[in-house]
């Protein structure tokens, strides 16, 4: 994976790496929670119904209807989530601590903040099991449009429907802090800004200084590398 990122960095720029990180970092979170192996027994369902966590998730059947996971997969997801988050929710500080273990060579705190904001759809400062599986369902099982919409929402920091250069620079700096500054020490400090300019040259079709969701999806769909990255983990669990 490290060599893959190294090859892509110079060729496609941080925007492609950013798309990949949406998926890869979610997989790292799943691995941390022990969710890659789904060889669990049916007793997980009993744990789901009888657990006395502070936040009780919705019924398994309802979550199955609302996501693209099977009942068995939801059982495994819940077991891992409950083991690591016995209170039933993850706050931002916990989220950052988890991601600091994924990227010990850099500072992942800002990227973890942005990713936490994307998972925290209710904007209540915590990610519940429902928030977690809804996001994963989109990232791992959603259509290409679903996944690109989710990625756009991650980059649209103030949620006003468009990505500005300032927002994209914040994203690029967070990725650079997490991976580039330490993994690629020869890169210049102005590299994130250069990648932002490259991003806007590619995606700001009408040159009005912002990237809309339509421009983002259209440009991503025309990028073969981004399309391949969106399909890398279709059958992870």
UniProtKB/TrEMBL annotation:
Keyword tags: Calcium, Cell membrane, Ion channel, Ion transport, Membrane, Metal-binding, Potassium, Potassium channel, Potassium transport, Repeat, Transport, Voltage-gated channel
GO process terms (BP): regulation of potassium ion transmembrane transport
Pfam families: EF-hand_7, EF-hand_8
Classification via PROSITE patterns: EF_HAND_1, EF_HAND_2
GO cellular component, one term: voltage-gated potassium channel complex
Cellular location(s): Cell membrane
Signal peptide segment: none
Domain called EF-hand: residue spans: 107-142, 143-178, 191-226
Top-level division of the source organism's lineage: Eukaryota
Family that this chain belongs to: Belongs to the recoverin family.
Name of the featured protein: EF-hand domain-containing protein
